Amino acid sequence: MSETTTLGAHMDAELTSQPEAWARAIAQSTAEHLLPADGARVAVIGCGTSWFMAQSYAAARESAGKGVTDAFAASEAFLGKNRGYDAVVAITRSGTTTEVLEILAELKGAVRTVALVGDTTSPIMTLADAVVELPYADEQSVVQTRFATTALAYLLTSVGMDLAQAVEDAKTAVTAPVGQELIDAEQFTFLGHNWTVGLAHEAGLKMREAVQGWTESYPAKEYRHGPISIAAPNRVTWMFGEQPAGLDADVAVTGALYINTGKHPLAELARVHRVTLERARARGLDPDLPRNLTRSVILDQ
């Protein structure tokens, strides 16, 4: 194995295993009944990547008619009594994130809580009222791929979304060669609509973490309200899911590369993981140990 391919070795194995992990989460979600019931008013919390997965779940649940669902960064969550939440869902790979644990401790005995976690030896196991255990999706790489998408596969399945096509599309996405134009691109903007806005934000974060690159992310219809001004040759605009009418033509005029493959949006996020890894390797960066980041943020008391 060359020095280049050893960079991000954990991330490589973890992102490649996503289709298998999703299939397992889909079956688990179908069998379990741990999440809030239909009609419940729900808040979903997380930090970093988990916050963006919370956004996707919240949009999908509410759009499916399952009840009011709001997503919050755990550090800025508004969960007081006047909000009237019946349950709080927390997403955390490590189960040790300070802000998440603080909220669950505050809500103990007052509001039902459900946690989705990768590390089933973590403190969150005794703080939440119910735990969705996803140890098979846990990771060694600091940069998250498999846990986030597997947790989201579980959550999307719970609101009735059929992810069979996502699993099939991802089998190709996680191993597809990455074109040189994507390796060399100066800048990426990711776009989404409804539940895929969270995917766009997560794609942008992933590339910032692993590649130290300039990325932006927006709801797709907001893109032409200013952000399209940065589109230019050697830059990429990447759409997750169905695009707004005329967006492709508007981006083409700028000279930027426009990507909207028509593949399942969750599989497209997995493809971004592959692109991110190969861009990091080309720059001599190791996404398993990215600059200034650790696996879990544990704040001083």
Please outline the helices and strands.
Elements: H1 3-6, H2 9-16, H3 18-31, E1 42-46, H4 49-63, E2 69-73, E3 87-92, H5 98-107, E4 112-117, H6 124-127, E5 130-133, H7 146-158, H8 164-173, H9 180-184, E6 187-192, H10 197-211, E7 214-219, E8 235-239, H11 247-254, E9 257-259, H12 265-282
Helix pairs in contact: 2-12, 3-7, 3-8, 4-7, 4-10, 8-12, 10-12
Characterise the protein shown here.
- The protein is an alpha/beta fold.
- 41% of the residues lie in helices and 15% in strands.
- The protein is built from twelve helices and nine strands.
- Helix 11 links the parallel strand 8 and strand 9 (257-259).
Briefly summarize what is shown:
With 301 residues, the chain is an alpha/beta fold.
> With helices defined by DSSP (H or I, 4 residues minimum), what is the helix count?
12
- Can you summarize the main beta sheet? 5 strands, parallel
Q: Please, what is the average pLDDT?
A: 94
Instruction: Describe the global form.
Output: globular
Instruction: Examine the secondary-structure arrangement and name the CATH architecture of the largest domain.
Output: 3-Layer(aba) Sandwich
Arrangement of strands in the largest sheet:
2-1-3-4-5
**DSSP strand content:** 15-25%
User: Secondary-structure element sequence?
Assistant: HHHEHEEHEHEHHHEHEEHEH
Please state the CA-atom Rg, rounded to the nearest Å.
19 Å
Q: Uncertain segments of ≥5 residues (pLDDT<50)?
A: none
Total number of domains: 2
Helix content: 40-55%
> Count the strands?
9
Query: For this structure, what is the CATH class of the largest domain?
Result: Alpha Beta
Q: Between the first and last Cα atoms, what is the distance in angstroms?
A: 43 Å
Assign the structural class, choosing from mainly alpha, mainly beta, alpha/beta, alpha+beta, or little secondary structure.
alpha/beta
Give the CATH superfamily of the largest domain.
Answer: Glucose-6-phosphate isomerase like protein, domain 1
- CATH fold assignment of the largest domain: Rossmann fold
